[in-house]
């Protein structure tokens, strides 16, 4: 599974970091940064949570 | 449960539908929306969309493939008109009825309007596109209401070269929500950018040529935007037996009745973290509550209280405002970092003897996380202020 982040949609809410700290971080402007494009299985639930909760619909988890 | 109906096809309803599928629900899933459009995002309506930076397609919350993957019985362009719990059916505007074993109400809010004719509101994509077509250099826009929505629209219109008058009934905009000091800072920001912000004025009527004030004055404008708050969409629940009072009244599990939950802007639920009932019109709450309601509906034996730290943001001019917690009705505001006048600060809000909220402008958002944590764990005000003093 691969994480896709549309950074120019990001509104800097940081909700993804709260949901999956090993996969996402924020830069100084708050914009989400992808730490791990292909997260380990144990992090996938957190990533799914981040996808669902992102207020900008800026994150997708794609099957590949 | 073999039949679940979600009424409301925006952020909360979509989050609920997605969560049901993720949690393994494989029965019939009906999603009802009164707009004819697939679920789209509303915060950009008063920002990127109004500014002309984004086209409507960018607001889609999911791709057609993602939506198809949910295997929905999708009923778009049709409002729910009634709920009959005894028959476990929802009535729709096209005369049909949908039976349910479980129901999630996510019908959102609609803008409050003022007496008179014409003028714009800003809630739907149609609303935003209609206003956007009318904004151009030299056009005169009156915005009634200097809350977050009105403030964002005023900021965009100035950037587009409009002459903007912002009318606010309170002496200081948003003072009830974020405190007088932050409200005054926003006032200054608007005035510096050439917005004619007039506080303490009451608009009695929207006319074809502007707005009429309580003292009789006519403020002339080419376009009028009314941004004076909103009302929960609960009319269709009259006679349903559900308790409605400024929203669908829910318990701490987002439950409104047996097998009926509510989520998003329309839900008034008891948030045990703050020990009070609240209704939150923020984008992040819509998604979080949609998820929580779906889980509690699907697995009542494992239900969990919905006890979030609310979060919101607002973009105005070059400022990003971010806030955690429940700031309304606070007893005290303390600036714990930076300087409000420089528009780089963190302010924290006391309600009773605890930290209830934090708001930041111009600081890296990650620095707010410890305040979110303080709110989430119910840290006492004194301890928080001392911790901060040590940290500084």
From TrEMBL, chain A:
Cofactor(s) essential for the protein: [3Fe-4S] cluster
This protein's UniProt keywords: 3Fe-4S, Electron transport, Iron, Iron-sulfur, Metal-binding, Transport
Single GO MF descriptor: iron ion binding
Pfam families according to UniProt: Fer4_13
InterPro entries linked: 3Fe4S_ferredoxin, Fe-S_cluster_ET
PANTHER family assigned: FERREDOXIN
Function: Ferredoxins are iron-sulfur proteins that transfer electrons in a wide variety of metabolic reactions.
Entry protein name: Ferredoxin
């Amino acid at each position: 599974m691969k994480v896709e982040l549309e950074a120019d949609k990001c509104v800097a809410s940081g909700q993804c970091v709260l949901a999956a700290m090993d996969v996402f971080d924020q830069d100084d402007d708050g914009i989400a940064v992808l730490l791990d494009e292909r997260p380990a299985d144990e992090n996938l639930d957190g990533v799914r949570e981040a996808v669902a909760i992102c207020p900008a619909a800026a994150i997708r988890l794609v099957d590949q | 449960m073999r039949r679940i109906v979600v009424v409301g096809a925006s952020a909360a309803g979509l989050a609920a539908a997605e969560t049901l599928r993720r949690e393994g629900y494989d029965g019939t899933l009906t999603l009802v929306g009164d707009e004819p459009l697939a679920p789209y995002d509303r915060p950009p309506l008063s920002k990127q969309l109004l500014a002309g930076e984004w086209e409507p397609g960018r607001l889609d919350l999911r791709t057609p493939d993602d939506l198809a993957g949910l295997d929905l019985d999708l009923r778009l362009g049709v409002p729910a008109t009634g709920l009959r719990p005894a028959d476990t059916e929802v009535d729709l505007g096209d005369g049909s009825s949908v039976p349910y074993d479980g129901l999630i109400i996510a019908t959102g809010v609609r803008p409050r309007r003022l007496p008179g004719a014409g003028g714009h509101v800003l809630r739907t994509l149609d609303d935003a596109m209609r206003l956007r077509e009318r904004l151009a250099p030299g056009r005169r826009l009156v915005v009634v209401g200097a809350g977050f929505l009105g403030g964002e629209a005023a900021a965009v219109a100035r950037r587009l070269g409009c002459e903007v008058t912002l009318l606010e009934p309170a002496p200081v905009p948003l003072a009830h929500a974020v405190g007088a000091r932050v409200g005054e800072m926003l006032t200054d920001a608007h005035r510096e950018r050439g917005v004619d912000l007039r506080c303490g004025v009451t608009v009695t009527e929207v006319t074809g040529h502007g707005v009429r004030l309580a003292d009789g004055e006519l403020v002339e404008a080419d376009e009028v935007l009314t941004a004076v708050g909103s009302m929960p969409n609960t009319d269709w629940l009259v006679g349903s037996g559900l308790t409605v009072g400024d929203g669908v009244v829910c318990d701490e599990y987002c439950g409104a009745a047996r097998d009926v939950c509510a989520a998003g802007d329309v839900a008034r639920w008891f948030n045990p973290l703050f020990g009070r009932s609240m209704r939150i019109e923020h984008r992040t709450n819509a998604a979080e509550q949609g998820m929580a309601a779906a889980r509690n509906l699907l697995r009542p034996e494992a239900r969990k209280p919905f006890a979030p730290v609310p979060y919101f943001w607002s973009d105005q001019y070059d400022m990003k405002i971010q806030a955690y917690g429940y700031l309304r009705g606070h007893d005290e505001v303390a600036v714990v970092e930076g300087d409000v006048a420089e528009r780089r600060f963190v302010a924290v809000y006391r309600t009773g003897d605890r930290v209830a909220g934090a708001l930041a402008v111009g600081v890296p958002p990650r620095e707010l996380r410890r305040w979110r944590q303080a709110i989430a764990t119910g840290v006492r005000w004194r301890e928080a202020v001392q911790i901060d003093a040590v940290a500084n």
